Amino acid sequence: MPESAVPVTRPAARGAAQPLVRLSGLKRHFDVSPPWLARVLEGKPRAVVQAVEGIDIEIAPGETFSLVGESGCGKSTVARLVVGLYPPTAGHIEFDGADMGARRSGSDMSAIRRRMQMIFQDPYASLNPRWRVFDIIAEPIRAFRLASSSDEIRQRVEGLLRQVRLTPADGVKFPHEFSGGQRQRISIARALASRPEFLVCDEPTSALDVSVQAQILNLMMELQRDFGLTYLFISHNLAVVYHISTRVGVMYLGRLVEVAPTDALFRRPRHPYTRMLLDTIPDLEMTGRQRMPVAGEVPSPINPPSGCAFHPRCPFANERCKRERPDLLEAEGTRVACHAVAEGRLPAEERSYAAR
Ligand SMILES: Nc1ncnc2c1ncn2[C@@H]1O[C@H](COP(=O)(O)OP(=O)(O)OP(=O)(O)O)[C@@H](O)[C@H]1O
Questions:
Q1: What are the residue boundaries of the structural domains of the chain, listed by start?
Q2: Which residues form the ABC transporter domain (predicted)?
């Protein structure tokens, strides 16, 4: 299939609705302590990575909620918690009103699991190389008993292949016979095979060429419209996030520092970290203001700084920022965790973000 560049268009923000997914007080810690003997003989201390440190997010049906932030801030851990690949250390995940942590029968759990699927960054690693594409896509249909005959399975797989712009003839091939973009199409077809409502997409285009990225993003947005899908989208690529998202959550060291509708975040970023991240986008329209330089590195999530975790890198930090962790507070339709914003020391700054 020719992979020519196509323009991407962003979906319009939808109105308020009951959340499909609700994360409350979600935490995940990883014990990375040295072995017991090293601790006893060499006096090495225990170490715990605070990968996710209390996240609250509501995702409405049909929206694309994106999580952004530098490497190691906990985005992928949130994605894995949501689909149940990791159990939370604390907090709750609700899907369509059901607490995912509650005890329930295998069939009830399977019914919920069918409704949420995940797409990974590396489509090659997530596809069984020894299976033909047909069987890769048919497997969830069989596992969730979504078809009553082999003829129905075949029709369904062929329909899914067409939906992702592959052909029924591609079903007899193996994953290695496809390009990276085509493999991601196969992953998407497989994810859709169980008829999910919610897709968690962890950097689904970051391993692909730029022109292919645009095609996959457009396909994802088209499928969202056709099937009424809801997305949790993880990316470090702000240009991609700008195009695909309804709302964006900015993460720093396991916490949300800003949550806002996409346009508001890109036109009027409030948190100094969001401003710094946006200023890393190449070709950003800079009319009438100074670029905020990227200063310092992300501190260790094993031993995060006191107060606001961003304070060692923040040009606006004062004594209070070093001492006291700011809460995520409502501010003109967005939520921001920053003392400087709350105290009016950091006025909003209008930007004209011209995505290319
Ligand atoms: N299984 C694990 N065991 C120990 N530490 C982990 C594990 N998974 C993640 N971490 C740590 O948790 C922190 C958050 O990692 P995570 O992968 O969620 O971040 P991220 O924002 O998705 O980064 P990236 O964009 O690089 O994937 C990091 O410090 C990481 O090293």
A1: 246-283+290-355
A2: 21-278
